[in-house]
Amino acid sequence: MSRLRKILITGAVLLPGCGFTRAQSTAKPAASSWTRDDAAHLLRRAAFGGTPEQIDRFHTLGRQGAVNELVDYEKVKAAFEPPSVMPYEPPPFYKEGPLAPEDRQEVIRIRRQNHIMEFSNMSEWWLRRMISTPRPLEEKLTLFWHGHFTSGMREVENPRFLYDQNQLFRRLAKGSFGELVKAVSADPAMLRYLDNVNNVAGHPNENYARELLELFTMGEGHYSENDIKAVARAFTGWTINRATGTPFFEMQKHDFGFKPLFGQFRRFNGYDVVDLILAQPATAKHVARELWVYFAGTEPDPPVLTTLASTFQRSKFSIEALLRAMFMHDAFYAPAVKFAAVKSPAELVVGTYRLLELPPSNAASLATALRRMGQELFQPPNVKGWDGGLKWINTSTLLERYNFVVGALHGNEAPREGEQMAMRMQQMMSDMPPEMAS
Fold first, then answer.
1. Residue 5 pLDDT class (50, 70, 90 cuts)
2. Is the pLDDT of residue 222 over 80?
3. pLDDT in tens, 161-215
4. Which terminal residue of the chain, N or C, has fewer Cβ atoms less than 10 Å from its own Cβ?
């Protein structure tokens, strides 16, 4: 692989003194070893890369010290201004009542334009935050959970819900996985995205139940169609208060009957279901695998996955404990893992700006670059999130990566922000449905 292709695909920007080379041996490194290349690798995967000085400092810390430095990010002070996002507003016509057709269309048009502007503000805000944060693992985890528990602007139709969900991911990024699943289950963006707002006793909607089991927790093949039905019934009545935009449990729409699930027969509610899912061995393995693939870029060997899943279970599903076990494992630093990951557009853009220590002065152009490379923050393509890996690379997106890196290195002038906003508004206006029912 040429050096430039390595930059474009793996995101390893080669700066003087970095010493980024890929070893040819497939031998597993000794547990006591800790090289400068290992330190650079950890920074690329658990952060967004490191400058030569940062790599040197992480090398002197040793493996344990370097992992602690990244994982204990709450010890580092970080303050960011929030993006320009309006507080929650009830759906159109919730307060206005009946309107003439032309007035109704005007209300829809204004609200749609406001949402598009706020959506753009949020994407640019998050890019600036990822580039400038002194706590990179926090943002990298937030990006992971955004792609794991997906929600999208076109489906949710409310920027405030997406911003609050982003903050939820950041707040619980390395805490209890069980607490995170329960919080996501009651999150307004998720309630809208997977239609649990329409999940009522007698007519259960199975969308959230299916994805909760298949994508978010257990993985395909570890549950039955009857389990999906039981989980859907358990989450009936979980909805949103239309006046306040807050989660709301509507008792009269909840199914209080007995439900068969994983060999038990009880009056399960949603929180009971999450606890029961965590008790299934498949859950620890599925989540551990997802995090390993995200950070290591390869499939974990069965013994490695077994070890990580066991650590996850013993820690009562502490995400932090799983991360520490992962970053301390020899397999994470194996030659076959180094430079094996294909960086997402966000990782490439953020990593390039951090490594070259460039200010994110035109975040709108960076958001445009991400879209051209195939990734749009706050709008994953579907409920599975981004496929990742080699799916990021095709003839079009590879060219966009070349253009972005060359532009960053040479300081080429980006498209004017006003032009970008006009193009974005035109695209979003065509994508959004005529009724904004937020």
1. low
2. yes
3. 999 999 999 999 999 999 999 999 999 999 999 999 999 999 999 999 999 999 9
4. N
Size of the chain, expressed as the number of residues it contains: 438
Q: Which residues of 109-122 are buried (b: 16+ CB within 10 A; e: fewer)?
A: eebbeebbbbbbbb
The SS3 of residue 25 is coil
Q: Are the C-beta atoms of 196 and 203 separated by less than 8 Å?
A: no
Task: Answer yes or no: are the C-beta atoms of 114 and 50 closer than 8 Å.
Answer: no
b (16+ CB within 10 A) / e for 400-413: bbeebbeebeeeee
Own/partner pairs, 36-43, CB within 8 angstroms, 24+ separation: 37/338, 38/63, 38/333, 39/66, 41/333, 41/337, 41/338, 42/66, 42/67, 42/70, 42/327, 42/332, 42/333
Give the DSSP H or E segment for 117: helix 101-132
Output phi, psi for 34, to 5 deg: -155, 100
CA 296 vs CA 34, 301, 333, 334, 389: distances in Å: 17, 12, 9, 10, 11
Tokens for 218?
A: 């257990």
264-266 vs 238-240, strand pairing mode: unpaired
User: pTM of the entire structure?
Assistant: 0.88
Alpha-carbon span 157 to 383, nearest angstrom: 16
Strand, helix or coil for residue 340: coil
| Residue labelled with tokens 């551990």 | 288
